[in-house]
Design brief:
The two termini are 33 Å apart. The protein has a three-stranded mixed beta sheet with strand order 3-4-5, covered by helices on one side. It has a two-stranded parallel sheet with strand order 1-2. Strands 6-7 form a two-stranded antiparallel ribbon. The protein is built from five helices and seven strands. It has 162 residues and is α/β, with parallel strands linked by helices.
Length: 162
């Protein structure tokens, strides 16, 4: 399937994940830009840097940008998950972007025990997450969730809570 913009591809993926019973998704969607939307990689890189600079959620000096054939790679370290997500959202609607690779890590600020407790508390605050089937493991700067959940939506809610 061909679509014209990256955000439409992402919207299609999100919609498929919300369907009860979906266990896997094959993203055979190609972003096909209309003629007037095609930009060279230098222009796209400039637009990405400016978007990061203009947005207050992300400090642009924390993220490096690489563009190759319209695919933007974001690399760096941020303090919070929302900054990582904001960087992606700022880029996905830019003219000429056909894909995004997020290689952004988050600084670890707390102890493993403290992080587990905060994640567990966030789960309990969410009415959509059944915590009985989820085990939390912390390895370095990564939180690993293991177990069984009821749907893609619950999976995404758990990821967002983390």
């Amino acid at each position: 399937m061909k679509c014209r913009f990256l955000f439409k591809k992402n919207t299609a993926e999100k919609a498929a994940k919300k369907v009860t019973g979906v266990k896997a998704i094959a993203l055979d969607i190609e972003v096909n830009l209309p003629g007037n939307s095609v930009r060279n990689d230098t222009d796209i890189a400039d637009a990405v840097v400016n978007a990061l600079k203009w947005h207050s959620a992300v400090r642009e000096n924390k993220i490096n940008v690489k563009v190759e054939s319209g695919v933007v790679t974001l690399e760096g370290t941020v303090d919070w998950e929302f900054q990582k997500n904001s960087a992606k959202m700022m880029v996905e609607n830019l003219l000429g972007v056909t894909g995004i690779v997020k290689n952004i890590s988050i600084k670890q600020k707390s102890s493993v025990t403290d992080i587990k407790q905060k994640i567990s508390s966030a789960f309990h605050r969410s009415a959509t997450i059944d915590t009985s089937g989820i085990k939390i493991e912390i390895t370095g700067t990564k939180a690993i969730l293991k177990g069984n959940i009821r749907s893609w939506a619950e999976k995404e809610d758990a990821e967002n809570a983390v």
